[in-house]
UniProtKB/TrEMBL annotation:
<keyword id="KW-0418">Kinase</keyword>
<keyword id="KW-0067">ATP-binding</keyword>
<keyword id="KW-0444">Lipid biosynthesis</keyword>
<comment type="similarity">
    <text>Belongs to the bacterial diacylglycerol kinase family.</text>
</comment>
<dbReference type="InterPro" id="IPR036945">
    <property type="entry name" value="DAGK_sf"/>
</dbReference>
<feature type="transmembrane region" description="Helical">
    <location>
        <begin position="102"/>
        <end position="123"/>
    </location>
</feature>
<protein>
    <submittedName>
        <fullName>Diacylglycerol kinase</fullName>
    </submittedName>
</protein>
<feature type="binding site">
    <location>
        <position position="22"/>
    </location>
    <ligand>
        <name>ATP</name>
    </ligand>
</feature>
<dbReference type="GO" id="GO:0016301">
    <property type="term" value="F:kinase activity"/>
</dbReference>
<keyword id="KW-0460">Magnesium</keyword>
<keyword id="KW-0808">Transferase</keyword>
<keyword id="KW-1003">Cell membrane</keyword>
<feature type="binding site">
    <location>
        <position position="75"/>
    </location>
    <ligand>
        <name>substrate</name>
    </ligand>
</feature>
<dbReference type="InterPro" id="IPR033717">
    <property type="entry name" value="UDPK"/>
</dbReference>
<dbReference type="GO" id="GO:0005886">
    <property type="term" value="C:plasma membrane"/>
</dbReference>
<keyword id="KW-1208">Phospholipid metabolism</keyword>
<feature type="transmembrane region" description="Helical">
    <location>
        <begin position="39"/>
        <end position="56"/>
    </location>
</feature>
Length: 128
C-alpha cells in the first residue's frame, strides 16, 4: 500500500510564499463570487471604523477582532464546502443540501454571536 501522502499531491505549493499566494487567491475568489462575503467585509470595515471613533479598549478590540475574523474565516470555509459539494454533484441530492445548509448554519450562529458582541460593546457607548 502506498502511504506516501505527498506523492498524491501533484499541485502542492512550492514554498511558504506560494502557499500565501494560493490562500490570497482563495480569499479573492470568495470576495468576487460570494455576496455574503462582501456584506461581511463591509460590516467588518464599519465595525472597525466605529471601534476607532469610539476609542474602545484593548480588551474590547480583542472581542471585536475575534468576532470579525471568525465570521470571515467561517465564510471562507463555507465557500470551500460549497465548492466541494458542487464538485461532487450538480444534481439535487439531500446530502448536498444538508452539507450546504449545515455549513451556512455555522456561519449564521457565529454571525449572530458577533452581532451580540457588537451590541454589548457599542450600545452603552452610543446611548450612554
Ligand atoms: N446539489 C444540491 N442538492 C440539493 N440542494 C442544494 C444543492 N445545491 C444547493 N442546494 C440548496 O440550495 C441552497 C443554496 O445553495 P448555493 O450553492 O447557492 O449556496 P449559497 O446561496 O451560495 O449559500 P450561502 O448563502 O451559504 O453562501 C443550499 O443551502 C441548499 O439548501
Amino acid at each position: 500500500m502506498n502511504t506516501d501522502y505527498r506523492g498524491k499531491r501533484p499541485f502542492k505549493a512550492k514554498g511558504v510564499l506560494q502557499s500565501f499566494y494560493y490562500a490570497f487567491e482563495g480569499i479573492k475568489h470568495t470576495i468576487m463570487t460570494e455576496r455574503n462575503m462582501r456584506i461581511h467585509m463591509l460590516i467588518s470595515i464599519l465595525v472597525i471604523g466605529t471601534g476607532f471613533i469610539l476609542k474602545i479598549t484593548a480588551l474590547e478590540w480583542l472581542f471585536i477582532l475575534i468576532a470579525v475574523g471568525g465570521v470571515i474565516s467561517l465564510e471562507l470555509i463555507n465557500t470551500a464546502l460549497e465548492r466541494l459539494v458542487d464538485l461532487a454533484t450538480n444534481d439535487y441530492h439531500p446530502l448536498a443540501k444538508q452539507a450546504k445548509d449545515v455549513a451556512a448554519g455555522a456561519v449564521m450562529v457565529y454571525a449572530l454571536l458577533s452581532i451580540i458582541i457588537g451590541l454589548i460593546i457599542f450600545l452603552p457607548k452610543l446611548i450612554g
